[in-house]
Design a protein that fits this description.
The protein is mainly beta and 94 residues long. The protein is built from one helix and five strands. Strands 4-3-2-1-5 form a five-stranded antiparallel beta sheet, with no helix packed on it. It starts with 14 loop residues before the first strand and ends with a helix.
């Protein structure tokens, strides 16, 4: 049976990138991490909770895998925007 909604394609392509402006790497994926922080045992301390964030998984030239804790430190070097067309007329209507 054919769906009226089209086809969903999930691509797991690796992308070339530079980390911290100097380390050449291949980007593999984003990882969502969270950690439970217990309440402080001191009087007036914090109540505890959950700390979460996004981490980039990259591979160095020597094959070592790194977790990049600051996603803004990753700069992709391929020109993926050349594959997309932005509708300038929609921008003008705003």
């Amino acid at each position: 049976m054919k769906s009226n909604f089209g086809e969903i394609v999930i691509r797991m392509e690796k992308r070339p990138c530079v980390v911290n402006g100097e380390l050449k790497a291949i980007f593999h994926c984003w990882e969502n991490r969270s950690e439970i922080i217990p309440p402080s045992i001191t009087l007036g301390g914090h109540n505890g909770g959950v700390v979460s964030g996004v981490i980039g998984i990259v591979e160095r030239e020597d094959g070592q895998i790194l977790r990049v804790t600051d996603p803004t430190a990753i700069r992709f070097t391929d020109n993926i925007f050349s594959e997309y067309s932005f509708d300038e007329s929609a921008k003008e209507e705003e």
